[in-house]
Amino acid sequence: MRNQRNGQPQIGSGLNIIAPSVTTADVVSMHFPNNKHLESLEKKLQLVRDYTAAVALGYVPGLFLFGSGGIGKSYTVVRQLDSLDANHQTLNSRVTGWGLICHLEKYPSHITLIEDAESMYRDPRAIGVLRSALDCQRREGDDGPIER
What we know:
Blueprint: E1 2-5, E2 8-11, E3 17-18, H1 24-31, H2 36-56, H3 73-83, E4 88-92, H4 97-106, E5 111-115, H5 124-134
Parallel strand pairs: 4-5
Antiparallel strand pairs: 1-2, 2-3
């Protein structure tokens, strides 16, 4: 099923994912016709776009994404959030529990992208705040977005 949003085609059943007119896979196949590694990367980046859209639309509370540096994870997430006109803020490098509380109070309706903040894993307060922020409930009998 196709419909329009902001002049761009959307494809989907349930979730509407904005499909760019030329995908990375198209560019890869034009320049590197038999490169299975790049095709595999594009499939993974499409999953990142799909899950990012699910977060932006409220169907899942969050996404934990990790992998080698420089392959386009953050770029893909930010680009997808922008294409969905989702309000988002980025925290980078060092995040404490208190800093995360202050950020979430200041931007309660935004999606928070935390990147390159491995020090958070060693801070039990930050992990506790993050766990609480991602806790959500679905209304009984509801299949729509999750209520936080």
